[in-house]
Amino acid sequence: MSNFWQRLLFGTIFIAVLIGAILYDAITFRILFLLISIFALDEFYKIVKTDKNEPNKTVGRIVGILIYILLSAIAFGTLTFKYSTLVIALLLVIPIAELYRNKEQPIINITLTTFGIFYAIIPFALLNFFATFKIHYNPEIVLGYFILQWSSDTFAYLVGITFGKRRLFERISPKKSWEGLIGGGVLTLIAGYITSVYFHSLSTSNWIIIAFIIVVTGTLGDLVESLLKRTYNLKDSGDIIPGHGGILDRFDSLLFAIPFIWLYLNFIN
User: Fold this and answer.
1) Nearest-5° Cα angle at 213, 123 to 265
2) Which terminus in the chain has less CB density within 10 A, N or C?
3) Other CB atoms within 10 A of residue 69 CB
4) Which residues of the chain have pLDDT under 50?
5) How many whole angstroms separate alpha carbon 70 and alpha carbon 79?
């Protein structure tokens, strides 16, 4: 199977599973993104592990899963928001656990283990708040978000390869261009307006603002993941999705965009 058809096949399957789980019910939604966040965390720990630096994968996974479950329970109303302070207590388990590991770089290990949770777990956990914005469970905002995120990535790529001349951040990502960012951004704002026609959970202006947030922060997220891979001389973050690389490759834009959109949704709520 050629690389193109492999990418198309597995990309289609991946999107179908993602949309199907979001639409089916709240349980499949929560389980799917818990699994995705665990895979993303494992990828991150695998990338940053070296002969000297060794994040605590076991403790990191346990703390990450508990934080996801905690934030999901708060989003769905099972727990009140005051329980979010337990996130701090859970994160403090990481340096305590490092006391019992005889490793060469304990402070770096603590930093990498903790950052992995902030980078790979918390953004997916915050998606639960999108799904419960003002009501118990409504997949509209989540679906609208992914439509705009995919639109931004696709439009920026197409405009960039067609018209791109001025490099956006050549040291980190030689292929990204200002033309791709601006042209893709304008088209994504239009997609935000179109999304508002079909998804009425938010106003037209709010969808367009969210589209703008996605363009800016999603681009930054993409660049940060490129920096991570360049630092460790990697082409892809993993190989879990044939033809598409790893989970971090597919969700790099999301990891930065979601926290900013969550802040915005809290501001307008």
Assistant:
1) 65
2) C
3) 16
4) none
5) 8
What's this model's pTM, rounded to 2 decimal places?
Answer: 0.91
What is the residue whose two structure tokens read 């704002």?
Answer: 189
CA-closest candidate to residue 165, choices 154, 156, 175: 175
Question: Count of alpha carbons within 13 Å of 233, Cβ hemisphere only?
Answer: 1
Q: What CA–CA distance (Å, rounded) separates 19 from 184? A: 23
Match 């969210």 to its residue by tokens. Answer: 210
Note the maximum CA span of the chain.
58
Scan for tokens 């200002």, then name that residue: 178
Residues in a beta bridge with 173 = 169
Structure token pair of residue 134:
């003002």
Output the pLDDT for position 52.
86
Copy the structure tokens of residue 29. 């939604």
Query: Residue 253 in contact with residue 205, Cβ under 8 Å?
Result: no
> Alpha helix locations (H) across the chain?
3-24, 26-48, 57-75, 86-98, 106-120, 122-131, 140-163, 178-198, 204-231, 247-268
Q: How far apart are CA 109 and CA 166, in angstroms?
A: 38
Instruction: For residue 109, give both structure tokens.
Output: 């290990």
Closest CA to 141 of 37, 262, 41: 262
